[in-house]
Design goal:
Blueprint lengths: L1 E4 L2 E2 L11 E7 L15 E6 L5 E16 L9 H14 L24 H5 L4 E13 L3 E13 L8 E16 L2 E17 L4 H10 L24 H4 L2 H4 E19 L6 E20 L2 E7 L4 E7 L3 E25 L4 E25 L11 E9 L3 E16 L3 E12 L8 E12 L4 H4 L5 E15 L12 E2 L4 E4 L3 E4 L2 E2 L10 E14 L4 E18 L14 E22 L2 E18 L8 H7 L8 E4 L2 E4 L3 H5 L17 E3 L14 E5 L5 E11 L2 E11 L2 E2 L24 E2 L9 E2 L24 E2 L2 E12 L2 H5 L5 E15 L25 E11 L1
Parallel strand pairs: 1-4
Antiparallel strand pairs: 1-2, 3-4, 5-6, 5-41, 6-7, 7-8, 8-9, 9-10, 10-11, 11-14, 12-13, 14-15, 15-16, 15-17, 17-18, 18-19, 19-20, 20-25, 21-24, 22-23, 25-26, 26-27, 27-28, 28-33, 29-32, 30-31, 33-34, 34-39, 35-38, 36-37, 39-40, 40-41
Length: about 850
């Protein structure tokens, strides 16, 4: 989605201080076409606060609170439970018990440790604070709004080595220089810094703390600081110690400037001339200080510590990237009403130019000592420098828009963009993208107005438009040439020279992909606002999506195919919103609910032709729904050995190695054998099809309460790696796998079976056939969440005046407070990336936050 802040497309809006935002609106229909390039997925319009003529105001906002993890799986934290699983897995494999004395591992004897690594390393509550101050006011000629803000968040590690800080600045100034000539200047700035221990990124830490067996000590011979070299790839207590392992620091500095002049032409009423210049610059600075350290094992006989070197040698990487965007606009706006206001027109003609520049470089050196983390203190041997790919592109457009309404009853908007992009050759650089929107306020017709007094407003509307997009296109693909440098080569046995390689075939016809959007909707308001609703149907058809031709070229040809405008897809859906608001004496309230559904399918997807009808069924995406998961149907778990023996053959080994509790697959094609031919579309992946929500708010005198519920359905979580069974790599297990099929005495296979949710324990990554993608593992991730709740009290004015304040507001709020979800969901349902190609569940957890705040205006 394209984000437009104060009229200018900008990136990374998540870092805008929320207290400076005045209004947010979303454009999803063809009316977004006027914003052109990259508006095909809709437009978010953000307007920041401006000053108002009148008495000057100072507003102070301060809040303090803490964050907590929502749902996140935990690893087994006591040795006995872990060792029961390991012994059980050994028996299944027909091996001797590795830990016959497992009951001794209570942690009371240091020789038999039981370590809760999670509680040793992870905070239960993470403090956070947010503070900002704003100044606003002005006269009839000059207004101003200035804001300064700070946000601090503490990370999950008990070592205090993970933190985030952000400072924001914004100044909106407006002045009437002479009558009819107004200047506006907006300055925005943001500087943030994120600190992590070098070895303790979220991915690395979560993976290690899950797999670390609790029967291994933190320190070799229980002696600090000799971190134990155990079965995990890295000791999870060590890797979050930045004094030991080093640190990663990432800084972003971003500055935005927008200056405009608007002139109301005095001799043509309604005509305005406007010029605008915007200049944004962003600097990304990265410092990765990787310190060499040791983990140890203890030799009881020799009574010495045996080190294992980690991250040798010490290394420092520094990187610097800069991005600059400049934008120029010159526009004419004209507004006019005729015939006593019955006919109204508004028109816009705008020329827009936008240039983007990006560059960067980095350096790396090794160190013999880690006393100074400065690049010039490193060794020159084997030093590395690099430059990032330079970004240099531009867009230019002529934009036109004409609005006409008759008595605010019949509404028409015509618009166009004539866009050019430097990413395309001259012959296909320019594209013409028109749009039309029509509206009919049927409630203004006599047959409604005179007969249905309950209808305050009823509007029918439709829109149709085409937008162009150049995103995803590599620069200068229409020019043949070479990549340089590409590889290094040695001549005369000693001289190293950079080489070059072919860019591949050029595509002189590469051009815009287009998104044609259509929608039809109804907006209604009944009983003077007691009830309002919106119903909308929409469609987006994208054509010319960039892809690489599926044919192959012989290696002797020495080049590859370029990107071409080959693919196309179609999205369809609907949205429904209904709201109710009312006031009863001093009590007012508002309720609003929404529901949206979207489904996408490929119309054409460039890929090689299938070799047979079966491969065509399983692999070809053309005219297929997107985001589907293919897998096996599962009919639960085997309950008895007889059921195993009488079932279709479950894998290539027949029924060998199957136990009660193992996954029972459906013979979908009924050929008596479970194999790849039994796979079919079983679920939708982790991109939801349906979203819904409800906003509720109420106020009585100075007291107010607001609640926001949101949810989603039509998507799934798919476990991978450590989420699919106990003892991966023969190490630890998540607690969920304690609920497994096992014998009444886990170490005696002659005792009766006890059913569980998961199959019996097996070492390593377990029994392969149990881990096939199937309806057994794919989890419906539907949920409803109380996303936010806020209770506030605004003091009576006479109370506020006692401290010379105009307004005093006290509030408490919480985010992600409660969640109702499908049974079996392992993670917070908003945690993405658990499936193949994701992060295997190691992503930083979703947080719930609780805050207490105070706002005072003087």
């Amino acid at each position: 989605m394209l984000v437009v802040v104060d009229g200018i497309p900008r990136w990374d809006f998540q870092r805008i201080d929320p207290s400076t935002i005045d209004n947010v609106s979303i454009l999803k229909d063809a009316s977004a076409a006027v914003y052109g390039v990259k508006a095909a997925n809709g437009v978010m319009l953000i307007t920041t606060k401006k000053g108002k003529a009148g008495k000057n105001e100072i507003t102070l906002n301060s809040s303090f609170g803490f964050e907590q993890m929502t749902d996140y799986p935990r690893a087994i934290s006591n040795s006995i439970d872990n060792l029961i699983l390991k012994n059980e897995a050994a028996l299944v494999a027909g091996n001797p018990l590795p830990f016959p004395d497992y009951k001794k591992y209570t942690g009371e004897d240091p020789n038999y440790p039981s370590v809760d690594y999670w509680n040793l390393t992870v905070r239960d509550k993470m403090p956070m604070s947010k503070n900002d101050v704003s100044f606003s006011g002005g006269t009839e000629k000059i207004t101003y709004y200035i804001s300064l803000g700070n946000l601090h968040q503490t990370g999950i590690y008990k070592t205090n080595s993970m933190n985030y800080d952000r400072n924001n600045f914004r100044a909106n100034l407006s002045a009437e220089i002479v009558k009819g000539l107004t200047a506006n200047v907006i300055f925005g700035g943001m500087m943030d810094k994120r600190d992590d221990p070098y070895g303790g990124s979220s991915y690395d830490f979560m993976k290690q703390v899950w797999m670390q067996p609790p029967y291994e000590p933190v320190y070799a011979n229980n002696t600090s600081p000799y971190y134990y070299d155990g079965q995990a790839d890295r000791n999870p207590v060590a890797i979050i110690n930045s004094d030991l392992t080093g640190s990663r620091q990432y800084q972003m500095k971003k500055f935005e400037t927008t200056m405009s002049l608007a002139y109301d032409v005095p001799f043509i009423t309604g005509l305005k001339v406007k010029g605008l210049f915007a200049y944004d610059v962003q600097y990304n600075i990265g410092t990765e200080w990787r310190k060499a350290y040791n983990e140890y094992k203890y030799d009881v006989t020799a009574k010495n510590y045996i080190p294992t070197g980690i991250n040798n040698p010490t290394q420092l990487r520094k990187s610097f990237d800069e991005y600059m965007i400049s934008q120029y606009q010159v526009s004419l706006e004209y507004k006019k009403s005729f015939a006593g206001g019955q006919h109204n027109i508004e028109s816009l003609l705008l020329v827009d130019r936008r240039n983007t520049f990006g560059d960067g470089f980095g350096a790396q050196r090794y160190f013999s000592l880690d006393a100074i983390s400065q690049i010039d203190a490193g060794l020159t041997d084997n030093q590395v420098t690099w430059g990032s790919n330079k970004i240099l592109d531009g867009n230019m457009a002529l934009v036109g828009r004409l609005n006409y309404n008759y008595r605010s009853k019949y509404l028409t908007e015509l618009s166009f963009r004539y866009d050019g992009s430097s990413l395309f050759p001259a012959e296909s650089r320019w594209g013409f993208f028109p749009a039309i929107s029509l509206g009919w306020r049927i409630s203004e017709e006599p047959f409604i107005k005179d007969n249905f007094s309950s209808i305050s407003n009823l509007k029918l509307r439709m829109s149709h438009g085409v937008m162009g997009d150049d995103s995803g296109a590599g620069g200068f693909q229409y020019i043949s040439g070479y990549n340089y440098p590409s590889g290094n080569y040695i001549f005369d046995g000693k001289t190293q020279t950079s080489g070059s390689s072919s860019k591949g075939l050029a595509n002189p016809n590469i051009t815009w992909y287009t998104a044609t959007t259509s929608n039809i909707g109804v907006d209604g308001n009944l009983w003077e606002g007691l009830l309002d609703f919106t119903v909308e149907l929409f469609q987006r058809k994208r054509e010319g999506l960039l892809a690489t031709r599926a044919e192959t070229l012989p290696s002797e040809f020495g080049a590859s195919f370029p990107q071409e405008n080959l693919n196309s897809d179609l999205s369809r859906g609907f949205e429904f919103v209904i709201g109710h608001s009312n006031r009863i004496n001093e009590f007012s309230y508002n309720i609003r609910t929404n529901l949206s559904f979207t489904q996408q399918k490929w119309l054409h997807y460039e890929q090689s032709a299938a070799g047979n009808s079966y491969l065509n069924w399983t692999n070809v995406n053309e005219n297929r729904l997107q985001n589907m998961i293919w897998g096996y149907g599962a009919a639960g778990q085997f309950q008895t050995q007889d059921e195993i023996n009488t079932s279709p053959v479950q894998n290539a080994n027949g029924h060998a190695a199957l136990f009660p509790g193992d996954v029972k697959y459906v013979d979908w094609n009924e050929d008596g054998m479970i194999d790849s031919h039994d796979r079919y579309p079983i679920a939708h992946n982790e991109i939801p099809q349906t979203f819904f929500g409800a906003e509720m708010s109420g106020g009585w005198k100075g007291l107010s309460l607001s609640l926001l519920f949101q949810g989603a359905t039509g998507y799934s979580q798919t476990p991978t790696e450590q989420l699919m069974g106990p003892l991966p790599w023969g190490r630890n297990s998540l607690t969920i796998f304690l609920d497994r099929w096992h014998h009444q005495d886990p170490l005696d296979f002659n005792t009766p079976w006890v059913p569980g949710k998961y199959p019996i324990s097996r070492d390593g990554f377990g029994f392969g056939p149990n881990k096939e993608t199937s309806t057994y593992w794919v989890i419906d991730a539907s949920y409803v969440r109380l996303k936010s709740v806020e209770l506030a009290y605004t003091l009576p004015v006479n109370w506020a005046n006692r401290i010379k304040a105009k307004q005093v507001r006290v509030y408490t709020n919480a985010f992600n407070l409660l969640t109702w979800k499908s049974k079996g969901v392992l993670f917070d349902p908003e945690h993405r990336g658990t499936g193949d190609g994701g992060d295997n569940g190691y992503k930083y957890p979703v947080m719930a936050s609780y805050n207490l705040g105070l706002s005072i205006t003087f």
